[in-house]
Design a protein that fits this description.
The protein is α/β, with parallel strands linked by helices and about 950 residues long. The chain is about 45% helix and about 10% strand. Among the domains are: about 190 residues, Rossmann fold (3-Layer(aba) Sandwich); about 220 residues, Ribonuclease H-like superfamily/Ribonuclease H (Nucleotidyltransferase, domain 5, 2-Layer Sandwich), CATH 3.30.420.10. It catalyses: DNA(n) + a 2'-deoxyribonucleoside 5'-triphosphate = DNA(n+1) + diphosphate.
C-alpha cells in the first residue's frame, strides 16, 4: 500500500497504489481551486439525492468526487479551495445593481454549503473565504502573494473573469477539458492579451453579473477599440474622434458607466489574505475524519474508490452514482466511454422479447447511471395514446427495443412470444425509471412522462430526467428547430430513419404496432441511441453558453409542472358550450345578411376570391393586389387598412371572420376534445417552439381566446370549476412595460410603477405635456397604444393605422415619446446593434434569443428582424418570469397545506382550481410567489380574481 504524501496528489492512506502519483511536486506550486464553480456544476448536473439523515447532498457528492479525483491527479506544494462568503461585496457599494439579476440559490442547495466546507476540511485542503470580497479577488491576491515568494500558480477554473490574472507565472486549468489556459488561449477568446481583458469586459459588459458596459458594444468591437486606443480611459478621452456615429454617441453618453464597469470587473489583488501562505501547504487528510465524513453522507462509491474497504452506507446512495456524476457533471476526469458519441455505428440493435434479457438491460442501465429512453405509441396525444413499446440506450451504439403491444392481441400466449407482457415489463422497469441514482435522458420528455404516468401504463413517475430538446432550446431558441432528427443531423452528422420509411405514407401507412419487429427495432432503438449521443454532446455546452442555470432552474423543472397541468385539464360546461355555439351561429347568419346588404348582392363571405372582386372590381377601392392565382389578396392586413380608411364592408368582414373562427376553433373544436372520462379538455403546452421562450398551446389552443371582447368573455364562461371549487386567475400586470422601465432605466416610469400609478395616464401626461389630473380618455388611449407599440417595434405608419391618424401626426407622437424617454431609444438601438453583431439578443435575465434574419439582404425581412429583436427581450423576459413562478408554486402550495392546483398558463396569466374555502389563502400564496421571483428596478404586480367560471375570475 502506498504511504501518505502531500495532497494535491496525496492519496488517502492505504489507497490503491495505482491511484497515487509517485513524483514529488516540482518547487513551489500553488493550486487555487474556484470552489463556487465546482459547487454549482455539481448541483446542476446531478439528480437529487439525500444522505441517511435526509439532507440533500447531490452538490456535496459531486464536489467531493471532483476534488478527490483532482487531488489524485494533480500535485502542488500548496493548495486551497476558495469560496464566496456572501452575495454582497464592495462592488455593490460601487454599483447597487451589481449581480442584482442573479437568483437566490435553490432551497435544496442552501443546506449543502456547510457540508461542502466540511468536505474540504475532511480532504485536508485549506478553505479560503472572506466577507466583503468575492472568491475571484482572493484568488488574485493569493496569486500575487505567492508569485512574490518565487512560486508559480495554477487556478483551477474556466471562469472568464479570472483570465485577466494569466501571466508567465500564473496559468489556469479548465477543470472540464483538463486543458491549460495560458496567454494564447486568453487572447484567442478576448482578442487582447490578459492584461487588457478588464478593458474589453468594461466596454462589453456582462449581463450575467449585470455589469452595464456600453450599450451596443460587444467583445469583438471592444477588442478592436482597445487595440487602437490601449485602454478604456484613453478611448473615452478620444471618443469624439470615433467615426461611427452610434458608437461615438454610445461612448460619450456612457462614459461613467464604462469607468464603473471597469472597477466592477477588475479583480482586487490587494484583498486581505484570510490565511497565511504557510497554511496552504499541502497535507494528507486525517484518515478517520475523511472516512467518517464519507460514511455519514452515504458516499459508498467514493469510499470504495479511495480504498476504505467495505463501503457500508445507505443503500439508496449507490456506487453507480459515481458514473452519473462523471457523465453529467463533466468532472475533472470524465467517465470512460467505449466510444465517442459520433464514432460508434448506429446498430444493429437488440429486440428484447423475454424478461431475462430485459433484466440484463435494466442492470446495465443501472450500472451506467445514465440511460437514453424513448416510448413508441400510436398517437401524438400523450393522454390518449396506447403504449406500443419502448427503447433503452446505455452507450453510443448500444441500444434495444422492448415491444409490448405489437401485432395481434394474445401474442404473449404463443409458445414463443415475440413480445413481453406489458404489465410485467413495466413493473420490472419501474425501479429503473424512478431510481434517483439513474438519469433518464429523453427527447421531449413531457410526452413520454405523461404516457407512463397513466394508470394503464403503470402510473410511473419517471425521475430524474434530462431533456435534449430543452437543452438545445435553452441555448439556441430561435436559431433552429429542436426536434431530434434536426439535432441529429446538426450535431451528429447522422440522419435518423424517417418515420414514414418505417410505416409508409398515405393510404399505405400502417400503424406502428403493425410494423415488423426488425424494422420497429431499428427505428425505435436508434431514437434512444441518438438521444443519448446528443445528451453527451449538448449538455456540457450549457455552462459554456451561459445557459446552465436557465435549463436547470427553469426549463428542466417545467417538464413535471406542465405534465401535471396537462393531465389535470380544465372542466368544460358542455351545455353552455353548445348554447354559445348556437349564439355564434345565429350571429353569423345575421352578419352575413348585413354584409350582403352593404355589398349590394349575395356572396360567399368566406370566399377571398368573391370578396376581392366586390372590394376592388365592383367597389373600385384602391390598393388591390392580385396573387399568383389571379385573385385579389384579402388577408387581415388588407382588410385592416381598408377598415382604417372607413370601408364598412372591410370592418364587418373582419368581425365576421373573428366570430367564424371562434365558432370553428373553440366551439366545434372544444366539443370534439372534451374527454368523456372527466368532462375536461387537456391542452398540450409546446415547450420549444416559440423563439422568445414562451409556451404555446395546442389541441386545443387556449392562448388565443380574445381577452377584452364580448365574444372572448362568452367563451371563457364555458370553462368552469368542479363543484365546491373556484377558478383563480393570477395575472401579471403590464409585465412587459415593467421590463421596459427596468431595462431602459426610465426614472419617471419607474416612479409611476413604484407608486402604483396608471402607467398609460402617466405616459400621456409626460409626452403630451398635460397636468396628470387632466389626462382625458383619448390621450390615455394614444399613450397606451404607443406604450405597447414601442415594445413591438411599431413604426409611425403602424401607429397611424392603429390610431386612425395621419402618419406625420403619428411620427410627432413617437418623437415626443422618445424625447421624453431617451433611455428607451438608446436601449432599442443598442438591442438592434447587439443582434447585428452577435446574431442574438438577451432577455433581462441573460437568455439568448437568436434573430436569424437580422443580416438578411432584403430590407423588409431585415426590418422585421429588427422589430423582433426589440420585442424579444420583453416577451422572453416575461416568459421567464412566469416560468420561474410556475416551478415554485406547486411546492409553495404544498408547503402551505393548500389543495389548489395550476391548470393553465395563458401568456402572463395562471389559472388555478381551488377549494372554495382556500381561495383567499391560495391567492395570497400565488401573489407572494409571483411577485418575488425576480428583482427588477420596478415592482412586479399581480392581479387576482376568482369565480365559478374563467370569465367570472376576470
Amino acid at each position: 500500500m502506498a504511504t501518505d504524501g502531500p495532497p494535491g496528489g496525496a492519496a488517502v492512506a492505504e489507497a490503491p497504489a495505482e491511484a497515487v502519483p509517485v513524483t514529488p511536486p516540482e518547487g513551489k506550486h500553488l493550486i487555487l481551486v474556484d470552489g463556487s464553480g465546482y459547487i454549482f456544476r455539481a448541483f446542476h448536473a446531478l439528480p437529487p439525492m439525500n444522505n441517511p439523515a435526509g439532507v440533500p447532498v447531490n452538490a456535496v457528492f459531486g464536489f467531493t468526487q471532483m476534488i478527490s479525483r483532482f487531488l489524485l491527479d494533480h500535485r502542488g506544494s500548496h493548495i486551497a479551495v476558495v469560496f464566496d462568503a456572501s452575495r454582497t461585496t464592495f462592488r455593490n457599494e460601487l454599483y447597487p445593481d451589481y449581480k442584482a439579476h442573479r437568483p437566490e440559490p435553490p432551497p435544496e442547495l442552501v443546506p449543502q454549503f456547510a457540508l461542502i466546507r466540511e468536505a474540504t476540511d475532511a480532504l485536508g485542503v485549506c478553505k479560503i473565504e472572506q466577507e466583503g470580497f468575492e472568491a475571484d479577488d482572493l484568488i488574485a491576491a493569493y496569486a500575487r502573494a505567492f508569485e512574490a515568494e518565487g512560486g508559480r500558480v495554477t487556478i483551477v477554473s474556466s471562469d472568464k473573469d479570472l483570465m485577466q490574472l494569466v501571466r508567465p507565472g500564473v496559468e489556469m486549468l479548465d477543470p472540464i477539458k483538463q486543458k491549460p489556459i495560458r496567454e494564447a488561449e486568453v487572447e484567442e477568446k478576448f482578442g487582447v492579451p490578459p492584461a487588457k481583458v478588464v478593458d474589453v469586459q468594461a466596454l462589453a459588459g456582462d449581463p450575467t453579473d449585470n455589469v452595464p458596459g456600453v450599450p451596443g458594444i460587444g467583445v469583438k468591437t471592444a477588442a478592436q477599440l482597445i487595440h487602437e486606443y490601449g485602454s478604456v480611459e484613453a478611448l473615452l478621452d478620444n471618443a469624439e474622434k470615433i467615426k461611427q456615429p452610434k458608437r461615438r454617441e454610445a461612448l460619450l453618453a456612457n462614459r461613467e458607466q464604462a469607468l464603473v464597469s471597469k472597477k466592477l470587473v477588475a479583480l482586487d489583488a490587494d484583498a486581505p489574505l484570510p490565511a497565511a501562505i504557510e497554511a496552504l501547504e499541502a497535507r494528507p487528510p486525517e484518515r478517520a475524519g475523511l472516512e467518517g465524513f464519507l460514511r455519514a453522507q452515504g458516499f459508498r462509491s467514493i469510499l470504495a474508490r479511495l480504498g476504505f474497504g467495505e463501503a457500508a452506507g445507505d443503500a439508496g446512495t449507490r456506487a453507480r452514482r459515481g458514473a452519473v456524476a462523471a457523465h453529467q457533471a463533466a468532472a475533472a476526469v470524465p467517465a470512460d466511454a467505449p466510444r465517442a458519441p459520433g464514432e460508434a455505428p448506429y446498430g444493429p440493435y437488440e429486440t428484447v422479447t423475454d424478461m431475462a434479457a430485459l433484466r440484463r438491460w435494466i442492470a446495465e442501465a443501472e450500472s451506467a447511471g445514465v440511460v437514453g429512453f424513448d416510448t413508441e405509441t400510436d398517437s401524438l396525444d400523450a393522454l390518449r395514446a396506447s403504449l406500443v413499446g419502448l427503447s433503452l440506450a446505455t452507450a453510443p451504439g448500444r441500444a434495444c427495443y422492448v415491444p409490448l403491444r405489437h401485432g395481434k392481441a394474445g401474442d404473449m400466449l404463443a409458445e414463443k412470444p415475440t413480445q413481453l407482457d406489458p404489465a410485467e415489463a413495466l413493473e420490472a422497469l419501474r425501479p429503473l425509471l424512478t431510481d434517483p441514482g439513474t438519469l433518464k435522458v429523453l427527447q421531449n420528455a413531457k410526452y413520454d412522462m405523461e404516457v407512463l404516468a397513466r394508470p394503464e401504463n403503470g402510473g410511473i413517475a419517471v425521475d430524474p430526467v434530462d431533456d435534449t430538446m430543452l437543452i438545445s432550446y435553452s441555448m439556441e431558441a430561435g436559431r433552429h428547430g429542436h426536434g431530434m432528427d434536426e439535432l441529429s443531423v446538426l450535431h451528429l452528422g447522422h440522419k435518423p430513419i424517417p418515420y414514414d420509411e418505417v410505416t409508409g405514407t398515405g393510404r399505405g401507412r400502417v400503424p406502428f404496432a403493425e410494423v415488423p419487429l426488425d424494422r420497429a427495432t431499428a427505428y425505435a432503438a436508434e431514437d434512444a441511441d441518438v438521444t443519448l449521443r446528443l445528451h453527451a454532446l449538448l449538455r456540457p455546452r450549457l455552462r459554456e453558453e451561459g445557459a446552465l442555470a436557465l435549463y436547470e432552474e427553469v426549463e428542466r423543472r417545467m417538464v413535471a409542472v406542465l405534465r401535471d397541468m396537462e393531465m389535470a385539464g380544465i372542466r368544460v360546461d358542455e351545455a353552455e358550450l353548445r348554447r354559445t355555439g348556437e349564439e355564434f351561429a345565429g350571429r353569423l347568419v345575421a352578419m352575413e345578411a348585413e354584409l350582403h346588404r352593404i355589398a349590394g348582392r349575395p356572396f360567399a363571405v368566406g370566399s377571398p376570391k368573391q370578396l376581392g372582386e366586390i372590394l376592388f372590381d365592383e367597389m373600385a377601392l384602391p390598393g388591390g393586389k392580385r396573387g399568383k392565382s389571379g385573385a385579389y389578396s384579402t388577408d387581415v392586413f388588407v382588410l385592416e387598412e381598408l377598415a382604417a380608411q372607413g370601408v364598412e364592408l372591410a370592418r364587418k368582414v373582419l368581425d365576421w371572420r373573428q366570430i367564424s373562427k371562434l365558432k370553428s376553433t373553440y366551439v366545434d373544436g372544444l366539443l370534439a376534445q372534451i374527454d368523456p372520462n372527466d368532462g375536461r379538455v387537456h391542452t398540450n403546452f409546446q415547450m420549444a417552439v416559440a423563439s422568445t421562450g414562451r409556451l404555446s398551446s395546442t389541441d386545443p389552443n387556449l392562448q388565443n381566446i380574445p381577452i377584452r371582447t364580448e365574444e372572448g368573455a362568452r367563451l371563457r364562461r364555458v370553462f368552469v370549476a368542479e363543484p365546491g371549487h373556484l377558478l383563480l386567475a393570477a395575472d401579471y400586470s403590464q409585465i412587459e412595460l415593467r421590463l421596459l422601465a427596468h431595462v431602459a432605466d426610465v426614472p419617471s416610469l419607474r416612479e409611476a410603477f413604484a407608486r402604483g400609478e396608471d402607467i398609460h395616464s402617466r405616459t400621456a401626461a409626460d409626452i403630451f405635456r398635460l397636468d396628470p389630473g387632466k389626462v382625458d380618455r383619448e390621450s390615455r388611449r394614444r399613450a397606451k397604444m404607443i406604450n405597447f407599440g414601442i415594445i413591438y417595434g411599431m413604426s409611425a405608419f403602424g401607429l397611424a393605422t392603429r390610431l386612425a391618424i395621419p402618419p406625420n401626426e403619428a411620427r410627432t407622437i413617437i418623437d415626443a415619446y422618445f424625447a421624453q424617454y431617451p433611455g428607451i431609444r438608446d436601449y432599442m438601438e443598442g438591442v438592434k446593434e447587439e443582434a447585428r453583431i452577435h446574431g442574438f439578443v438577451r432577455t433581462p435575465f441573460g437568455r439568448k434569443l437568436w434573430i436569424p434574419d437580422i443580416a438578411a439582404r432584403e430590407a423588409q425581412r431585415r426590418a422585421g428582424a429588427e422589430r423582433a429583436a426589440i420585442n424579444a427581450p420583453f416577451q422572453g423576459g416575461a416568459a421567464e418570469v412566469i416560468k420561474r413562478a410556475m416551478v415554485r408554486l406547486p411546492r409553495a402550495l404544498r408547503d402551505a397545506g393548500l389543495k389548489g392546483r395550476m391548470l393553465l398558463q395563458v401568456h402572463d396569466e395562471l389559472v388555478f382550481e381551488v377549494p372554495e374555502a382556500e381561495a383567499e389563502a391560495t391567492g395570497g400564496v400565488a401573489r407572494r410567489v409571483m411577485e418575488s421571483v425576480a428583482e427588477l428596478r420596478v415592482p412586479l404586480g399581480v392581479e387576482l380574481g376568482t369565480g365559478r367560471s374563467w370569465a367570472e375570475a376576470h
